[in-house]
Amino acid sequence: MRSYRDSAVVLRQHKLGEADYILTLLTRENGLVRAVAKGVRRPRSRFGARLELFAHVDLQLYPGRSLDTVTQVHSIAAYSGDLAGDYGRYTTACAVIETAERLAGEERAPAPELHRLTVGALRAIAGGMRDRELILISFLLRAMDAAGWAPALTLCARCGDDGPHRAFHVAAGGAVCVHCRPAGSAVPAQGVLDLLVALARADFDFAETTGDRVRRQANGLAAAHLQWHVGRQLRSLPMIERHAPHSSASATGAGGTEVDGAGIATG
């Protein structure tokens, strides 16, 4: 089989033997790829530093039965230095790459839009271009949209009636009207759904006019919707919750799930 080239983001590293890494990569043309990088943990490795977590790289890989092999690496952008020095940025970036891996689907399934969104989110977080919480919410919404799991925000998730709607139910698929609203629906603060709509469109100018309470409830709804559809808790999201400033806002999520002041679903 012939080798191939692709652009990739390093999502995960696992040690293999004394000097190798098994990498989980989100590539532009080949989707999720797992590959061996041989000898990269040795001090004199030619490209070990280029394959750090969060790195955006151009790779040449040789296909294998279960794992491909990295044969060449060219760095496009290295974000680990900017992220590692700030705990908030680092944990937010961890949430981005964990989400990207969960939403990428099966290995080798092309995901060019998810790749583009992941690179853009890491660049924005590392560069401090916008509020990191807003970057994360926008990424979650747009990544879910690319994967076909976007929450309904302007229409009722059940009947399709035009909004605005006040209630949100994760299992129902997002915003719900007064006629379709299931028991246990969240009723977020005024402006939360407007913020979600803005961030789904990457309208950061509007998003930055919102307050802390609105942002944290929006974060909680986006995170709850994501975790419901991937079918598991993301390990990185509670880390952001525990170490981020808290407000007193609270709402009740789908099925009685509480959305706390930090905007993360609990319970």
Automatic annotation (TrEMBL):
<dbReference type="InterPro" id="IPR003717">
    <property type="entry name" value="RecO"/>
</dbReference>
<keyword id="KW-0234">DNA repair</keyword>
<comment type="function">
    <text>Involved in DNA repair and RecF pathway recombination.</text>
</comment>
<protein>
    <recommendedName>
        <fullName>DNA repair protein RecO</fullName>
    </recommendedName>
</protein>
<dbReference type="GO" id="GO:0006302">
    <property type="term" value="P:double-strand break repair"/>
</dbReference>
<feature type="region of interest" description="Disordered">
    <location>
        <begin position="243"/>
        <end position="267"/>
    </location>
</feature>
<keyword id="KW-0227">DNA damage</keyword>
<dbReference type="GO" id="GO:0006310">
    <property type="term" value="P:DNA recombination"/>
</dbReference>
<dbReference type="Pfam" id="PF02565">
    <property type="entry name" value="RecO_C"/>
</dbReference>
<dbReference type="GO" id="GO:0043590">
    <property type="term" value="C:bacterial nucleoid"/>
</dbReference>
<dbReference type="InterPro" id="IPR012340">
    <property type="entry name" value="NA-bd_OB-fold"/>
</dbReference>
<dbReference type="InterPro" id="IPR042242">
    <property type="entry name" value="RecO_C"/>
</dbReference>
<comment type="similarity">
    <text>Belongs to the RecO family.</text>
</comment>
<dbReference type="Pfam" id="PF11967">
    <property type="entry name" value="RecO_N"/>
</dbReference>
<keyword id="KW-0233">DNA recombination</keyword>
<dbReference type="InterPro" id="IPR022572">
    <property type="entry name" value="DNA_rep/recomb_RecO_N"/>
</dbReference>
<feature type="compositionally biased region" description="Gly residues">
    <location>
        <begin position="253"/>
        <end position="267"/>
    </location>
</feature>
<dbReference type="InterPro" id="IPR037278">
    <property type="entry name" value="ARFGAP/RecO"/>
</dbReference>
<feature type="domain" description="DNA replication/recombination mediator RecO N-terminal">
    <location>
        <begin position="1"/>
        <end position="78"/>
    </location>
</feature>
